[in-house]
Amino acid sequence: MAFFRPRVSREAEVRYHADLEISKSFPEFIEKARQAEQVLRELRASGADEIELLAAGRAFDAALTEALRAAEAGQRATFGVKAYDDRIARRKAKATPAGAMWTAEVERLRTLREDNRLWGIPRVPRPLPATA
After folding, report:
1. Which member of 2, 52, 87, 118 has the greatest number of CB atoms within 10 A?
2. Predicted TM-score of the model (pTM)
């Protein structure tokens, strides 16, 4: 007697299709991040005050976060449906050229975002309430 064993769970299929949809917007998000980085570099070069640099740094961080989420979704979608449930399938998929490309892109974006959070966003002291 043969028993049917589904290859992947229904949840994995749903997550896979959701990641496919999210990853389609990766080029738009990466372009927004490039534009935000360009604005931040121009403000630094022109000697803008710290409040403007703070706003530009936070905008760049938000754009990088969106791009990173889309890249992670693309990475998971590239790994395939089985990789959602099986860690061995995930490791095998990482070893493929497409998987390695997405993994490198995700790591690059994480490093960029961390660098921006550490050094790109200026520390502006909070204003103290006036005491009488």
Report:
1. 52
2. 0.85
